[in-house]
Design a protein that fits this description.
By secondary structure, the protein is mostly helical. The chain has a domain at 88-159. It has 27 helices and no strands.
Length: 552
């Protein structure tokens, strides 16, 4: 099929399914949604299909999603899509019921003033309506009417007033400069500088020395180094670097030696697992932290590593064992030589010092120095920019599309939250009757399954905001503690990075598959085994952490 025709068909399918969401009779299934909430559902479906089918790059879908949000659900949307923010007739009735002795002129003035104020507020609810009317009643000298708003009868009447919530244009555009975006950008600057001044290759050379020449030990060494690099720089860049180091070694294997497959697979496996170790290791981690911050919850860089690093260590050894069993190595000796020396120019020394300083501050956490991880991430950006360690040419080589992809996920989460849709969906399902362990298992499995067939970033962007609303509701109702809410989102972030059974699952997988050493079947078998084991390990770790109060 012609590539252009295929792209058109996939986009048409996405648009058709999205349009169908606009005409579904939600009232018949117990959901009372306003037009803006219906549009958010349509945008959600559109983004999901576009991210899964990929008729255009996933980052381009994110940019398009933000544009559609601006057009259709923001306070600066196109005129045909602007909805009446509040039921004016119901508002007038409420004012009259609260102030039965007021004159028609007084009611008209209060209505006009309160309506004008309410239409300028992006997020409307019963409390906002009540406080606005209370203020206007006091201004008019109707103090009894202001007090009457808090009677049970008028509280119920206020709750029934239909409102339409929108997203502020500034909030949508601000997703491109969210603090989490800066966190990632800081990681990009560190990675670019490390590669430019050969820090990564020299560290790899030093770190490989203790593992000798036995193939099984060399494989473990490669996996450990890959995982460590993937914690602090793009796992895609890490995989590309490590495969470049490994390429000459793969050529030393006999064609029939299955150990060659194991070596080619160990790099992407370690990169995918290693990214789980730190908040900046992979986008799903950053998305989870962003959502937690929006909920008023938080997990520090150091606390994340306290969970992530043990998980990485456990899974590295398990992965190493599985790969050795599935792809036994016949070759008896392997030697890896990296012919690079540490650069000692002033700029290289600046890179070394900044690298150590930034990572040390991240690990120490806010409790020691008072700065959060986003502020610390700006240190390498500022230092490398001022000292010209990173130039305009280097900036052009960075993975800006990853930042745009993450921004699109943030915008979708913002739309779900600010429109009130996430809260309505949460209220429609009796989540407070669910067992938190069952919810953690179910949500984590769905996330892992979806990320096997689509971007783990896109998967996290789709599911995390919904689960945040679920967790928020369960916390508010006292069903679970805040610690369990954090555990739910951290567990889902871990699960998103475990979808690595196919060449399309992650960029590291695709890079390894491109070597020609691996068949899809080999990756699917090893990946599926490691996904399942990793899922059990991840759920166990976050469950224990929540039980012992680690997140409190």
């Amino acid at each position: 099929m012609n590539a252009v025709l295929k792209t058109v068909i996939l986009i048409a399918i996405s648009l058709a399914c999205s349009a169908a969401m606009l005409i579904i009779p939600y009232d018949s299934i117990g959901l009372t949604l306003n037009p803006v909430e219906t549009r958010v559902i349509a945008l959600f479906v559109f983004a999901a299909l576009m991210w899964i089918l990929e008729p255009i790059p996933v980052w381009a879908t994110s940019v398009l999603l933000i544009q559609l949000c601006l057009f259709g659900i923001s306070d600066q949307s196109l005129a045909p899509f602007r909805e009446e923010r509040i039921d004016k007739a119901a508002l007038v009735t409420l004012i009259a019921d609260a102030a039965p002795t007021a004159s028609a002129e007084q009611i008209s003035k209060i209505d006009a003033a309160s309506y004008g104020k309410l239409t300028k507020i992006s997020k409307l609810d019963s409390d906002t309506i009540r406080l606005t009317l209370e203020s206007e009643f006091h201004k008019a000298g109707l103090h009894d009417a202001a007090a009457r708003l808090y009677s049970d009868e008028l509280k119920q009447e206020t709750a029934k007033i239909r409102t339409v919530n929108i997203v502020k244009q500034r909030s949508l555009l601000a997703t491109f400069a969210d603090p989490i975006i800066i966190l990632f950008l800081g990681g990009f600057f560190l990675a670019a500088a490390a590669t430019k001044y050969k820090l990564d290759l020299n560290l790899a050379n030093i770190m490989m020395r203790p593992f000798g020449v036995k193939p099984r030990n060399v494989m473990l060494g490669l996996m450990m180094i890959t995982a460590i690099f993937a914690m602090f720089m793009s796992n895609t860049a890490t995989t590309a670097m490590m495969l470049a180091i490994l390429a000459p070694v793969l050529g030393l294997f006999d064609p029939n030696d299955r150990g060659r497959i194991g070596f080619a697979l160990c790099i992407p496996v370690a990169a995918n697992i290693g990214g789980i170790g730190t908040p900046i290791g992979t986008p799903p981690n950053a998305i989870a932290i962003k959502v937690l911050n929006d909920m008023g919850l938080s997990i520090s860089f150091g606390k994340w590593m306290c969970l992530g690093v043990p998980f990485v260590i456990i899974m590295l050894f398990i992965s190493w064992f599985v790969l050795l069993k599935l792809f036994p190595i016949a070759k008896e000796e392997l030697r890896i030589k990296v012919k690079e020396k540490f650069i000692t120019t002033p700029k290289a020394i600046i890179v070394y010092i900044t690298f150590v300083l930034t990572i040390s501050l991240w690990i120490m956490g806010r409790g020691v120095h008072g700065m959060d991880s986003n502020t610390i991430a700006f240190i390498p950006i500022a230092i490398f920019s001022v000292t010209r360690v990173i130039t305009e040419k280097d900036l052009g080589l960075m993975k800006w599309e990853v930042l745009w992809l993450v921004a699109g996920g943030f915008a979708l989460g913002l739309a779900l939250q600010e429109s009130g849709l996430a809260n309505n969906l949460m209220n429609a399902i009796p989540f407070n009757t669910w067992n938190i362990i069952a919810l953690l298992l179910g949500a984590g499995f769905i996330c892992m399954f979806m990320s096997t067939f689509m971007s783990n970033t896109a998967t996290a962007a789709l599911l995390t905001p919904i689960l945040a609303a679920v967790a928020g509701g369960m916390i508010a109702s006292g069903v679970i503690s805040e610690g369990w809410g954090i555990a739910l989102l951290v567990g889902v972030a871990f699960a998103a990075s475990l979808g690595m059974a196919l060449p399309i699952s992650t960029p590291p997988n695709a890079l390894a598959y491109a070597t020609g050493m691996i068949k899809s079947k080999d990756m699917a078998i090893s990946g599926t085994i490691l996904c399942c084991i990793g899922f059990v390990v991840a759920i166990t770790i976050v469950t224990i952490a929540a039980e012992i109060g680690f997140f409190n």
